[in-house]
Specification:
Lyase, Ornithine Decarboxylase, Chain A, domain 1; 2 domains; 30% helix; TIM Barrel; alpha/beta
Length: 379
């Protein structure tokens, strides 16, 4: 860690490469689109995208057009799909920079077509069917209308249909009845697209997220779209880690160490009171940095070779740990979470403690925490 840095998130790009290799094995020949939305799930969009591509992913996925344009500005030329298109998105630039766009509604498709006409370019489009998650995508009752609109635009040369896709609601709940129902609905949507001439041999069919990539061979189709698994966090924690390796380790330096007497109230509200003379350590990260307030008096970190419980309230910029009589000094490192190799908590453990998912833990780590990359250029 830099001498000037109070904290950093260490991102192991070799772990990401390993995870892509694991996921390619599950894909069994289907293409792998690595989801790098939300700044690479908090790990850093550009370095992670490069690591994924170097490891064999062939495509990238982003939620927002701005994320895709960030990748293009960094010189990444691989195919990129962006799937949330709100009014006012820079669609002209997206079409000019060969960003593939999702349309799950005729109105969205019309906006894409208008951008293509303005730029004189053909927009590459993935048509999305809502097979049962009730978010984006055309419900099956409206799917024929979307196909007709897209085929008309394709005949006019303004769009090219390059993908047909959907998204699971419950793939992370093995055996959930919605899984089979969504696959049946997706097959129905694909069959209709084929009958109308919208499912040529070049058109990529895809529905599998991380959980489906690993556990549902029947959902592979032509491409899989892993997200959280790319970063080494299990999409189905109760079923194991599937050989994935967590890529992020969150580390801080103790800002202050001091002895306090028994009966000392610690942090706001005095939720924690020392029961003996002890050493307290101040960790310079708080809820503004993604260390959620719900970890107050319950979360754990690794310091001086042992797990320590957060002592009292997590504040905006700091929290306290009780170090007992162990020898520590300001500047010593504290591991908040990591892969668990040295006994530190994992992001999944934090998630379990908070009643949430590991996705939220890593994506919440704020911009004040620099990302430091290890094993850059790994193959």
């Amino acid at each position: 860690m830099s001498a000037a840095a109070p904290a950093e998130a260490r991102v192991d790009l070799a772990a990401i490469a390993h995870n892509i290799s694991v996921l390619r094995g599950h894909a069994a020949g289907a293409e792998v689109m690595a989801a790098v939305k939300a700044d690479g799930y908090g790990h850093g969009i550009v370095p992670c995208a490069r690591a994924c591509l170097a490891a064999g992913a062939t495509r990238l996925g982003t939620a927002l057009v701005s994320e895709a344009l960030t990748l293009r500005a960094a010189g990444i030329t691989a195919p990129i799909l962006s799937w949330i298109l709100t009014p006012g998105e820079p669609l002209d630039e997206a079409v000019e920079r060969d960003v593939e766009l999702s349309a799950g509604d005729p109105g969205i498709l019309d906006r894409i077509a208008e951008a293509a006409r303005r730029t004189g370019r053909t927009a590459r489009v993935h048509l999305k069917a809502d097979t049962g998650i009730s978010r984006g995508g055309a419900p099956l009752a409206l799917w024929p209308a979307l196909l007709d609109r897209a085929l008309a635009a394709q005949a006019g040369g303004v769009v090219e249909i390059v993908g047909l896709w959907s998204h699971f609601a419950c793939a992370d709940i093995p055996g959930h009845p919605s899984i089979a129902a969504q696959l049946a609905a997706f097959d129905e949507a694909l069959n209709l697209a084929d009958k109308l001439g919208a499912a040529g041999s070049h058109v990529i069919r895809h529905i599998a997220n991380s959980a489906a990539t690993i556990t549902l061979p029947e959902a592979r189709y032509d491409m899989v779209r892993p997200g959280i698994a790319v970063y080494g966090l299990s999409p189905i924690p109760e079923a194991g880690d599937f050989g994935l390796r967590p890529a992020m380790t969150l580390v801080a330096r103790l800002a202050l160490v001091k002895r306090v007497p028994a009966g000392s109230g610690v942090s706001y509200g005095h939720l924690y009171v020392t029961d003996r003379e002890t050493t307290l350590g101040l960790v310079p990260l708080g809820y503004a940095d993604g260390v959620m307030r719900g970890l107050s008096n319950r979360g754990h970190v690794l310091a001086a070779g042992r797990r320590r419980r957060v002592a009292g309230r997590v504040c905006m910029d700091q929290f306290v740990i009780d170090l007992g009589d162990d020898p520590v000094a300001a500047g010593d490192e504290v591991i908040l979470f990591g892969p668990g190799d040295d006994g530190e908590p994992t992001a999944q453990e934090w998630a379990d403690s908070l009643g949430t998912i590991s996705h939220e833990i890593v994506t919440r780590i704020g911009a004040r925490v620099p990302r430091v990359y290890r094993h850059e250029g790994v193959r």
